Amino acid sequence: MAHPDERTERSDEKPAERSQADLSARLKQLDDRLDRATGSGRSDDADKASHPMSNQGALGQAFRLSAEFVSGVIAGGALGLIVDKVFGSAPWGLIICLVLGFGAGLLNLARASGAFPGRGQKG
C-alpha cells in the first residue's frame, strides 16, 4: 500500500480529476481493509438485508392513514353540499355532514391502523 504523501504526478490530468481519482482509490483501499479486519466480506445485498426499509414503510403507512381520515371528511363535506343544494338547508347540511364525515374518518383511521376491528374481523 502506498504512503498517502507519495503521489504519482500525471501531467495529462487536471488537479480536480487527480484528487477525485486519489479519493476513489483511497476509499477502495479502506473498504478492502475493513473487509479483512471484520473477517467477513461485506456486500450490498447483505447491507440491504440488515437494514430494513423502515422509513419507507412508515412513510407509506402514514400517507395511507392520513388519506383514510381526509377522505372521510371530504366525502362528508361533499355530501353536505349536496344536501344543502337539494333541500335548501344551508349551512346545516354541510355542518352535520362534516361532523359525520369527521367521525367516519376517525373510524376508517382506527380500522386501517388495526386499533379497531373492521367488518368481518373478529378480535
UniProtKB/TrEMBL annotation:
<feature type="compositionally biased region" description="Basic and acidic residues">
    <location>
        <begin position="1"/>
        <end position="20"/>
    </location>
</feature>
<feature type="transmembrane region" description="Helical">
    <location>
        <begin position="89"/>
        <end position="110"/>
    </location>
</feature>
<comment type="function">
    <text>A possible function for this protein is to guide the assembly of the membrane sector of the ATPase enzyme complex.</text>
</comment>
<dbReference type="InterPro" id="IPR032820">
    <property type="entry name" value="ATPase_put"/>
</dbReference>
<feature type="transmembrane region" description="Helical">
    <location>
        <begin position="62"/>
        <end position="83"/>
    </location>
</feature>
<dbReference type="InterPro" id="IPR016989">
    <property type="entry name" value="Atp1_alphaprobac"/>
</dbReference>
<feature type="compositionally biased region" description="Basic and acidic residues">
    <location>
        <begin position="28"/>
        <end position="50"/>
    </location>
</feature>
<comment type="similarity">
    <text>Belongs to the bacterial AtpI family.</text>
</comment>
<dbReference type="Pfam" id="PF09527">
    <property type="entry name" value="ATPase_gene1"/>
</dbReference>
<keyword id="KW-0472">Membrane</keyword>
<protein>
    <recommendedName>
        <fullName>ATP synthase protein I</fullName>
    </recommendedName>
</protein>
<keyword id="KW-0406">Ion transport</keyword>
<keyword id="KW-0813">Transport</keyword>
<keyword id="KW-1133">Transmembrane helix</keyword>
<keyword id="KW-0812">Transmembrane</keyword>
<keyword id="KW-0375">Hydrogen ion transport</keyword>
<feature type="region of interest" description="Disordered">
    <location>
        <begin position="1"/>
        <end position="55"/>
    </location>
</feature>
